[in-house]
Amino acid sequence: MLAHMSSGILWTGGLAASFVTCRCDPWPWSSMAADPNMADEDTSSGTTMRNALFRLLKLPPRLLYAVGLGSLYGRMVLLLTTTGRKTGKPRITPLQYEQVNGVFVVGSARGAVADWYRNVVADPLVEVRVRRSRFIGIAETCTDPARITDFLELRLERHPRLVGRILRFRGVPADPTRPQLEAYASRLAIVTITPQ
Fold first, then answer.
1. Residue 135 domain-assigned (yes or no)
2. pLDDT of residue 29
3. What's the rounded Cα separation, in Å, for the pair 192 and 7?
4. Beta bridge partners of residue 83, listed in sequence order
5. Is residue 7 part of a domain?
6. Judging by beta carbons within 10 Å of its beta carbon (0-12, 13-18, 19+), is residue 8 exposed, middle or buried?
7. How many helices (H) does the chain have, and how many strands (E)?
8. pLDDT in tens, 2-23
9. Which of 11-15, 69-73, 132-136 has the lowest mean pLDDT?
10. 4 lies in some domain
């Protein structure tokens, strides 16, 4: 299934994958609305409310890591810190992941338009917090539907109920055929992170 993949993949499924990048500050609950320089985020009408909701949903993982409980929460979620492509400021995004052969893989349900993904394209040097460890890594982007489908099959194998629910939420059968997964994968993107 993953024979042609030399690295692992991390995936953000369902709502978690739709998160926009939030600001990196010492306290995850601090207000970002007061900062007029949030140039890395889309603030057009229609997306402002969604962005605020996703920012709120990202607080629990950041808070758990901040108080030292990352080892409990880190079984499925890591914190990816990218550099904002416009501001140069650190941006933290909680993402579901898979680890394959020492490489971490994360995915973007919003494809290549997600803010955190575009930040990785601009600067592939990232920081990752997973469980009790923290490391610098090099991120490699991928939009190849075949590789993404391989990753989705791995996720289905490892987490059938969770990934099945995410797929159903996205309009894909919980037990999809490969062509169905490939059609879905054509809208997605993944990032492999190799620790340095």
1. yes
2. 27
3. 7
4. 90
5. no
6. buried
7. 8, 8
8. 333 333 333 333 333 333 333 3
9. 11-15
10. no
Domain holding 183, by residue range, is 14-195
184: left (phi over 0), alpha (psi -120 to 50) or beta: alpha
70 against 138, higher pLDDT: 138
94: CB partners within 8 A, 6+ apart: 16, 19, 58, 61, 62, 77, 78, 79, 80
* Res 113: pLDDT: 94
* Tokens (6 digits) for 70: 């990352």
User: Which amino acid does the sequence have at 53?
Assistant: L
Which residue pairs from 158-161 have beta carbons closer than 8 angstroms and sit at least 24 positions apart in sequence?
158/98, 159/76
CATH assignment at residue 42: 2.30.110.10
Number of domains the chain is built from: 1
Confirm whether 2 is domain-assigned: no
Report field, pTM of the whole predicted structure over 0.85 = no
The average confidence (pLDDT) of the chain is 76
* Beta-ladder partners of 138: 125, 194
| Nearest CA among 1, 3, 196, 4 for reference residue 104 | 196
Rounded CA separation 3/11 (Å): 18
Cα–Cα distance measured from residue 35 to residue 52, given in angstroms and rounded to the nearest whole number = 13
